[in-house]
Amino acid sequence: MALLGMVCMRGVVIEKRFKVLELVGESGQGEVYRGVELETRRDVAVKLQLPRLFEPSSEYKGNGEDMQVEGQRSVRLAGPGIPEVLWNGPYGHRHCIVMEYLEGPTLAEALAQCRPVKTPTVAAVVGQLCETVGRVHDERLVHRDIKPGNIMIVGERGTVHLLDLGWAAEAGLVPERTGGTGGWMAPEQFDPTAVVSPALDIFALGCLILHMTVMTLPYGATAGSRPQEGAPVLPPDRLAALPPDLKDLALAMVAWAPGDRPVSAKEVSASLAPLLPAPGSPAPGRALKPDPTAYYRLPGRSC
Fold first, then answer.
1. What is the pTM of this model?
2. Which end of the chain has the lower number of beta carbons within 10 A, N or C?
3. Is residue 170 in a domain?
């Protein structure tokens, strides 16, 4: 299906403004292409709803409406750490979102080259994410799908971007459907009757800390699976390997009961602040590439 999409879409011009160049990825909702804005010649990312296969027309229409809402939410959350949306609308019978094109590896790709990582790098990644997630929560939204594949590290400053708002939902409401990726989802996220809360994203951020430091997800979960009730948070050897300066925070963030987790991304950020690299300090040994600690170490950081 992806190859067919690539053949059909290459060279297509959308809204007389954006030309599609090549397929670069695919998510659960759509194909992602690299394109170019014809007037400015800048690269763009084009997310296009997957072609309709055998699903009912009402379901396909609903998927397009979900993408439209995703685009609207991205516009609403415009700012550092979230790609800028340049256009959001229909292309034929498919929905399309055109965004700024980000050049860099996902966190999953970066970690494949260098893991486990040291505390300053963990603090830099999660600290930057807390700035973005805090802004999401201030808008009464919850991302619900924070994972390494939805995080990108960009440029020499190692700026961390949070991608894919396709599963985002309004806080305080029961969502129309459960969403997220197994292994990174909080226990209550599997309950279709549970109210959405920021605690879901706090749990996922805690999973990131465990994944980066001891390469294990909590409660016996693996990528694609659900946590096992009654299982220990971590096996004894992984618990012993957890860096002492991150241990209490990480375990609190992945507490089984949402009420036992830090109440906000700002609280997590405050706990991480003493662990961040100081301005002007050298890069850590075995740094990720790009290096997210550069965001804090190099001069010129915007507040």
1. 0.93
2. C
3. yes
Residue 251 lies in a domain: yes
pLDDT in tens, the chain (303 residues): 444 444 468 899 999 999 999 999 887 678 999 999 999 999 999 999 998 888 898 888 998 999 999 999 999 998 899 999 999 999 988 999 999 999 999 999 999 998 899 999 999 999 999 999 999 999 999 999 999 999 999 999 999 999 999 899 999 999 988 889 999 999 999 999 999 999 999 999 999 999 999 999 999 999 899 999 999 999 999 999 999 999 999 999 999 999 999 999 999 999 999 999 999 999 998 899 999 999 999 987 644
Q: Which residues contact 233 (CB under 8 A, 6 or more apart)?
A: 218, 219, 239, 251, 254
Q: Does residue 282 contact residue 298 with C-beta atoms inside 8 Å?
A: no
> Which of 100, 132, 154 is where one domain is finished?
100
